[in-house]
Design brief:
Shape: globular
Number of strands: 22
Largest sheet: 7 strands, mixed
Strand content: 15-25%
Structural class: alpha+beta
Number of helices: 20
CATH class of the largest domain: Alpha Beta
Distance between the termini: 24 Å
Helix content: 25-40%
Number of domains: 4
CATH topology of the largest domain: FAD/NAD(P)-binding domain
Bound molecules: flavin-adenine dinucleotide
Length: 646
């Protein structure tokens, strides 16, 4: 079978002693989804991670979802992944964010019980017979030099497995690295610097060296986590209470609403920093590793440390502090909003100036972690490393931040590693199909200068990419490659049918001289209003999710049509492949920045080229002309040989 041109490499010839089709390094959020996805597609999988008791660990905030991220979780669920079901089973507070705004930006979020989440993730992976879980430290990659063959593109080194700390070699058809914040990781608290990717876990320096040895460009980023406090030491009375939704909506399309939520629900509380807090932070700012120059990595701009907030927003006299219980049976409280790497004694001093925290007992101090990431522009849209056959990367190793982003990437990498091993066509999501598609495209056409996280504003087609329709967008495609189950497919078909039936009924209705659909489009009119007036509609007994689907389809029909037309216009640009061997340096007329970035990033299509920052419309026009000429030359060159054959 000819190699699929969209896979960057031909299929490997598996060695006789291979242990798994797909080997995943790391049992975090990316690793869990990668292993599960590869197994769903029919591969045998080895999941190797430092500690099996920390599979699915939430390194930072015990929360899933949020703006932009909640949509990713719904997409993961529609693609057969686990994150939505895990969140539903372990959530202790659920909220739909942005309900006052349009349907396009609504997003689910939950607080999870950290321990239960980890246990549920471990059980989910362990229950899959095709996955073998191995507790070990991976110290390097097993590389075969120049063995891959494949028309020149796979001539370099290819990955055949991994090496463990005890010297054992595990062989596999494909290896997915999902090592998170662990590459050459250093944890900082004030002047103290300790090697390690997360409290209690080592740094993976060998892996970092091996990745660099393969010639991959690495960058350095940082992230941080706030202190954890003892619940009984907090004066809760008088603090603002924040409750979850009265009628919570599950993440997973498979969760039975009647059995949801599964756990008792808790309240969070809000308090505020004040001028005294800020004065202490300012007086000690020179002791923060970032400000003292001990950290070179860039941190997340949208999730800044409290010292960053005090410096960057000097005019603000207070910042919110959310007190979030980490579970139902623990006294650990996560102090959201005050991520910090100031010295331990300074953390205690400034936090005790905050109302309610005057006698706070610290169970753990905040810290920052600095780590290597692999520049994601070296990846294909399958998350395969373009120059190293058999190697895939997913999660924080690609310069992202967040559980949801990691899980979404893990699913795509796991699916594609499996499809590559099985010699089947890749599974790629486009920007107009999914937030996950937006993330993949954003990552591979540029390199993050700070940890990349999802926002709804990153998606130009966000009216199409809603949380409510993730199943309608993705489940059929997922089922076609084995990612989603038959039951999921039947569920979405039934939902589509019910929505279609309701829309036909609406169109037949006449209310005040208008069709039911026209009437529903009026501002302030809800489908429930019509149901109470029209017995035919009420008799359809629509479920809440079908009702939501109908309402959004009808109310937003005009906008959706315009977005679909815009996608159609861009389709030809998106479908125009740029030749692999295109010599941008030799193309006269390209802007200097465009030439430099195109040479470095090597976009796959004209559409991807157009999205690179610094590539201007005239550069794209020039590329389009060049590609057309290139194609004509190629076709002309092929003609004589066809005649010869004849
Ligand atoms: C201190 C800290 C603060 C954070 N703060 C935030 C935040 O504020 N906001 C936010 O969105 N995200 C934050 N994160 C990031 C969030 O935890 C990650 O984005 C997410 O967990 C990434 O998932 P992942 O699967 O890529 O990696 P991880 O969840 O980190 O999982 C990596 C896994 O790989 C394993 N591993 C690594 N190297 C090896 C090896 N050589 N051999 C075997 N196993 C290995 C580890 O044990 C771990 O199980 C923070 C992370 C940390 C550590």
């Amino acid at each position: 079978m000819a190699p699929d041109p969209r896979h960057p490499h031909p299929r490997p010839v598996l060695p006789g002693d291979w242990t798994a089709d797909v080997l995943v390094v790391g049992g975090g959020h990316a690793g869990v989804e990668a292993a599960l996805a590869a197994a769903r597609i029919g591969c045998s999988v080895a999941l190797v991670t430092f500690r099996l008791d920390l599979v699915g660990e939430m390194s930072c905030n015990p929360a899933i979802g949020g703006l932009g991220k909640g949509q990713i979780v719904r997409e993961i669920d529609a693609l057969g992944g686990a994150m939505g079901r895990l969140a539903d089973a372990t959530g202790i507070q659920f909220r739909m964010l942005n309900t006052a705004k349009g349907a396009a930006v609504r997003a689910p979020r939950c607080q999870s019980d950290r321990h239960l989440y980890r246990e549920a993730a471990t059980r989910t992976v362990a229950a899959v017979p095709a996955i073998r879980m191995i507790e070990a430290a991976v110290t390097g990659l097993v590389i075969a030099e120049g063995a891959a063959g494949g028309g020149g593109r796979g001539r370099g080194p290819s990955v055949r497995g991994v090496r463990l700390a005890d010297g054992t070699e595990l062989r596999a058809g494909a290896v997915i690295l999902t090592t998170g914040t662990f590459l050459r990781a250093v944890m900082h608290t004030g002047e103290s610097q300790v090697s390690g990717g997360r409290i209690g876990e080592a740094s993976a320096d060998g892996m970092s060296l091996d990745v660099a040895r393969l010639g991959l460009a690495l960058g350095r980023l940082k992230t941080g986590t706030p202190p954890r406090l003892a619940a009984e030491s907090i004066a809760w009375d008088g603090l603002e209470e924040q409750r979850g939704d009265e009628h919570p909506v599950p993440f997973s399309f498979a969760t039975d609403p009647a059995a949801f939520p599964a756990l008792a629900q808790i309240a969070c509380h809000v308090t505020y920093t004040n001028e005294r807090t800020h004065a202490i932070i300012r007086a000690n700012i020179h002791r923060a590793p970032m400000y003292a120059g001990r950290i070179e990595g860039v941190g997340p701009r949208y999730c800044p440390s409290v010292e960053d907030k005090v410096v960057r927003f000097a005019d603000k006299d207070r910042h919110q502090v959310f007190l979030e219980p980490e579970g139902l049976t623990t006294n650990v409280v996560y102090v959201n909003g005050v991520s910090t790497s100031l010295p331990a004694e300074v953390q205690e001093e400034f936090l005790r100036t905050v109302a309610g925290l005057e006698r706070a007992e610290f169970l753990r101090h905040g810290y920052a972690v600095e780590y290597d990431f692999v520049e994601p522009s070296q990846l294909a849209d399958t998350f395969a490393v373009r120059r190293v056959p058999g190697l895939f990367l997913a999660g924080q190793i690609n310069g992202t931040s967040g559980y949801e982003e990691a899980a979404g990437q893990g699913l795509i990498a796991g699916a594609n590693a499996a499809l590559w091993v099985k010699d089947e066509a890749p599974f790629v999501l486009a920007r107009h199909e999914a937030y996950i598609g937006v993330m993949v495209d954003d990552l591979i056409v540029s390199n993050p200068s700070e940890p990349y996280r999802m926002f709804s504003s990153r998606a130009e087609y966000r009216l199409l990419l809603r949380q409510d329709n993730a199943d309608r967008r993705l489940t059929r495609r997922a089922a076609a490659v084995g990612l989603a189950s038959q039951a999921a497919l039947e569920r979405v078909e039934a939902k589509e049918q019910a929505i279609a039936q309701a829309k036909v009924a609406l169109d037949k209705l006449r209310i005040e001289g208008k069709t039911g659909s026209e009437f529903l489009r009026r501002p302030g009119v809800a489908l429930a209003d019509l149901e109470s007036r029209v017995p035919e509609l009420a008799s359809l007994a629509l479920s809440p999710e079908v009702r939501e689907g109908v309402e959004i389809d009808v109310k937003y029909a005009g906008y959706v049509k315009r977005q679909e037309e815009s996608i159609e216009r861009l389709r030809s640009q998106e479908a125009t492949e740029l030749p692999d061997d295109l010599d941008y340096a030799a193309l006269s007329g390209l802007g200097t920045e465009a030439r430099e970035k195109l040479t470095r990033l090597r976009p796959r299509t004209l559409g991807a080229a157009a999205r690179i920052d610094g590539v201007r419309p005239p550069d794209v026009a020039l590329l389009a002309v060049h590609v057309a000429r290139h194609l004509r030359t190629k076709t002309a060159a092929r003609k004589p040989s066809m005649r010869t054959q004849a």
